[in-house]
């Protein structure tokens, strides 16, 4: 039986919320990849490929994959010839990524996506898939990513969001409230963790508000590409200064 996970989604301290999220992802590793496959009905692979193709010329470029988890995005990047650095604060996720051969060929770092251990202007692109809605300090995340990108470099965000269409949003909200915690809970044995994850989608800031924040924090342009009836979005954000 897995140890019980304390449910602290209403915790106001960013450090405590990070600790909670880190412990939660450590505990979800055994069934994480399987559940991603089931809960996205296989769509996540298509979204991954779409996200990576938005970088543009990729062979030989320096790419940082933040909140890399078990390394699915990093693997696509490495397979396409990017010099990839992968970062996550869950050691168990990183270990699984190494064991399944997704992370082996790049530099792999255990660290916080909002406090980056890299010098300024050193990456051509930064990717983050299903990570930003877990970050309690979006402001420092955006400033840090902007700092480590070279002028003209791109931040590509893939995230689950609420569809704009009212009918779709009603169906999706039912799915998030009822089905996702039940399926996730049964398979992982962690119903509260999947309830928390569904909650982070229901309460996360709208992509347009994220775009505004990015523009205020030094990005020159942001474009939004909704996916699969608007349940996910790919955001392409370019740093200015070329
Ligand atoms: C939903 S998973 C996504 C993993 C992977 N990108 C994917 O597409 O499957 C979110 C990941 O973000 C990581 N994470 C959350 N907050 C983080 C932070 N502040 N710094 C680094 N990693 C973080 C978690 O440990 C987890 O592996």
Topology:
Layout: H1 14-39, H2 43-53, E1 62-66, H3 72-79, E2 83-88, H4 91-99, E3 107-110, E4 123-129, H5 138-148, E5 149-160, H6 166-188, H7 191-203, H8 207-216, E6 219-227, E7 232-239
Parallel strand pairs: 1-2, 1-4, 2-3, 4-5
Antiparallel strand pairs: 5-7, 6-7
Helix pairs in contact: 1-4, 1-6, 2-3, 6-7
Tell me what the structure shows.
With 242 residues, this protein is α/β, with parallel strands linked by helices. The protein has a domain of 164 residues: Rossmann fold (3-Layer(aba) Sandwich). Helices cover 46% and strands 21% of the residues. It has a 7-stranded mixed sheet with strand order 3-2-1-4-5-7-6, sandwiched between helices. The longest helix is centred in the first third of the chain and has 26 residues. The N and C termini lie far apart (54 Å). The N terminus is likely disordered. The site of S-adenosylmethionine has 21 residues, from helix 1 and helix 3.
Shape: globular
Helical fraction equals 40-55%
Low-confidence segments, given as residue ranges, are: 1-10
Classify the fold: give the CATH topology of the domain at 14-22 and 41-160 and 205-239: Rossmann fold
The major pleated sheet works out as: 7 strands, mixed
What is the radius of gyration?
17 Å
H-E string? HHEHEHEEHEHHHEE
> Order of strands across the widest beta sheet?
3-2-1-4-5-7-6
Measure the end-to-end span: 54 Å
CATH superfamily placement of the domain at 14-22 and 41-160 and 205-239: Vaccinia Virus protein VP39
**CATH class of the domain at 14-22 and 41-160 and 205-239, please?**
Alpha Beta
Query: What percentage of the residues does DSSP assign to strands (E)?
Result: 15-25%
What class would the helix/strand composition place it in? alpha/beta
Distinct small molecules bound, one entry per kind: S-adenosylmethionine
Summed up, the helix count is 8
Number of strands: 7
Query: Mean pLDDT, as a whole number?
Result: 91
The appropriate CATH architecture of the domain at 14-22 and 41-160 and 205-239 is 3-Layer(aba) Sandwich
């Amino acid at each position: 039986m897995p140890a019980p996970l304390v449910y602290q989604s209403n915790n106001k301290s960013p450090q405590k919320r990070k600790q909670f999220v880190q412990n939660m992802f450590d505990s979800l590793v055994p069934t994480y990849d399987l559940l991603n496959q089931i809960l996205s009905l296989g769509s996540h692979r298509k979204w991954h490929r779409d996200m990576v193709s938005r970088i543009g010329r990729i062979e030989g470029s320096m790419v940082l994959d933040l909140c890399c988890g078990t390394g699915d995005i990093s693997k696509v990047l490495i397979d396409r010839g990017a010099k990839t650095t992968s970062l996550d604060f869950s050691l168990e996720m990183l270990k699984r990524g190494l064991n399944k051969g997704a992370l082996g060929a790049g530099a792999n770092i255990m660290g916080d996506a909002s406090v980056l251990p890299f010098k300024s202007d050193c990456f051509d692109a930064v990717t983050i898939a299903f990570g930003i809605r877990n970050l309690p300090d979006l402001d420092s995340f955006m400033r840090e990513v902007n700092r480590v990108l070279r002028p003209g470099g791109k931040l590509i965000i893939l995230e689950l969001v609420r569809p704009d269409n009212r009918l779709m949003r009603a169906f999706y909200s039912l799915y998030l409230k009822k089905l996702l915690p039940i399926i996730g809970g049964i398979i992982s044995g962690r119903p509260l963790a999947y309830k928390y994850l569904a909650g982070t989608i229901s309460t996360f800031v709208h992509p347009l508000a994220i775009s505004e924040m990015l523009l205020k924090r030094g990005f020159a342009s942001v474009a939004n590409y909704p996916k699969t009836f608007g349940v996910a979005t790919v955001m392409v954000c370019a740093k200015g200064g070329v």
